[in-house]
Write a structure and sequence with these properties.
The chain has 435 residues and is mainly alpha-helical. Helix content is 54%, strand content 6%. It folds into four domains: 73 residues; 51 residues, no CATH class; 128 residues, Orthogonal Bundle (Arc Repressor Mutant, subunit A); 145 residues, no CATH class. It has 20 helices and six strands. Strands 1-2-3 form a three-stranded parallel β-sheet, with helices on one face. It has a three-stranded antiparallel β-sheet with strand order 4-6-5.
Length: 435
């Protein structure tokens, strides 16, 4: 049954937990007043926070149905349990059957395109490889008879040609690289920060020119710059990085961290760690000497380094885990101590030590496995080392995310018994009256 348009609502941005609860309460009251089925659509931006909370709250209301669109990376990070919410996970990757249906809809007999058949278009789309791909690229290919990558490559070549002829600006190419790289990793750039980075450039003219080429877009009344679409941004980034001479991943990451808003720092660094792992050792060194401007950013960097440390640890023990799984099946996770945060210092997750039902011989075998496990403290080394090197706290907190970060950082400082300057331990310069 189709829902009337007046009963279909769109939530565009959820800033924090408090706002999520307020939105949920408002929609709940509205649904109960209307007394009819309501559909809520949530489009999760990379910097959105609290969307899982609002889904959990709305799931309690029988007449509300929720549709969420979210990036795969953000979906993997989400803490949404089927025990709390009944949901279906629908992947938007385009497979052959779906592409065939789209091709049949888009192809017009009266205006034949470049491709003689669907098979030819599909082979061109995949580049000779089997598998799946982004919907946006396939639609563009069928409509324009050229791949989106080819189109973007031609645009970048034109900008470079103009520069060599003296008709273009190197700042334009640099600006495009920064916006595309940040956008591909879930970040946007602040125009005010860009003006400071390029004080002699006519930034307004360059932005307008790149917007006309459908390469970037302005947001928030011109305060932020973003890529036109994540897929376009990833393709642009690949094109700009492909020669290995004009731009470098680490250098772009270091530049972008100074230009993106506080809300985007965490998702930007997480995507950097997951997609460009080779740049993380250098980025970690850079972060050692970088002062987070706010507590929100301070907490974001700490969480990213925790994730990065756990990721490295998981890769380190992956071979060992696979060996144990072959020998002991699903019991493998009982044999290792996976309490990486050390919440249970006595035994961690190796609960078998307290089970009298396991004979001494079995415990000895399990202990021999546990003895081979690398020290779990290795998982938190990047975060602990970074936190230990902090001396000056950021500027006093002014927002809810700032205070939430202070609580989180305080917990880790105490848990790890971080030595050092009292200014960080005290979180001192915080103006508690502002809370």
């Amino acid at each position: 049954m189709e829902t009337p348009s007046s009963w279909r609502l769109h939530i565009k941005l959820i800033e924090n937990r408090r706002e999520a609860l307020q939105i949920a309460a408002t929609l709940s009251a509205h649904a109960q007043a209307v007394g009819a089925p309501i559909v809520i659509y949530i489009d999760v931006r990379p910097h959105d926070q609290g969307w899982t909370l609002i889904v959990e709250e709305l799931a309690r209301i029988p007449q509300i149905r929720v549709l969420v669109t979210v990036r795969e990376e953000d979906w993997r990070r989400a803490t949404l349990s089927r025990a709390d919410v009944g949901f279906e996970d629908i992947s938007l990757s385009l497979d052959r059957a779906e592409a065939q249906a789209i091709y049949d809809q888009l192809s017009r007999p009266e205006t034949p395109g470049q491709f003689l058949s669907f098979d030819e278009a599909w082979a061109r789309f995949l580049g000779g490889n089997d598998g799946e791909g982004p919907l946006l690229e396939f639609v563009y290919l069928v409509n324009r008879s050229e791949s989106l990558r080819e189109k973007l490559l031609a645009q970048v070549k034109r900008i470079r040609t103009d520069i060599h002829r003296g008709d273009g600006s190197r700042v334009e190419l640099r600006l495009l690289a920064l916006v595309a790289f940040a956008s591909a990793l879930g970040g946007r750039l602040e125009v005010i920060a860009l003006r400071k980075r390029f004080p002699d450039a006519d930034l307004g003219f360059l932005v307008e020119r790149l917007e006309r080429e459908y390469l970037i877009r302005s947001l928030e009344q011109g305060l932020l710059l973003d890529g036109l679409h994540p897929v376009r941004s990833r393709l642009l980034t690949d094109i700009l990085l492909c020669d290995g001479m004009s731009f470098d991943v680490l250098e772009l990451a270091q530049a972008c961290i100074e230009l993106i808003p506080d809300t985007d720092v965490e998702v930007f660094l997480l995507h950097l760690a997951s997609r460009h792992a080779q740049a993380m050792p250098g980025m970690t060194l850079y972060l050692d000497g970088w002062q987070p401007p706010t507590w929100q950013v301070f907490g974001a960097v700490l969480r990213v380094l925790l994730w990065w440390g756990v990721q490295q640890y998981v890769e380190q023990i992956a071979g060992m885990v696979e060996e144990i799984r072959r020998q002991h099946g699903s019991a493998w996770n009982m044999m290792l101590d996976l309490d990486l945060a050390d919440l249970n210092p006595l035994h961690g997750t190796a609960v078998w030590k307290d089970l009298n039902a396991i004979p001494a011989e079995g415990k000895a075998q399990m202990q021999s496995v546990l003895d081979r496990q690398p020290p779990k403290s290795l998982a938190t080394v990047p975060a602990r080392e970074w936190l230990t090197k902090r001396r000056d706290p950021p500027r006093p907190p002014t927002t809810h995310p700032d205070w939430a970060a202070i609580a989180e950082v305080s917990d880790w400082v105490g848990r790890w018994e971080i030595p050092g300057d009292d200014r960080l331990h005290d979180l001192g310069a915080c103006d508690t009256e502002a809370h």
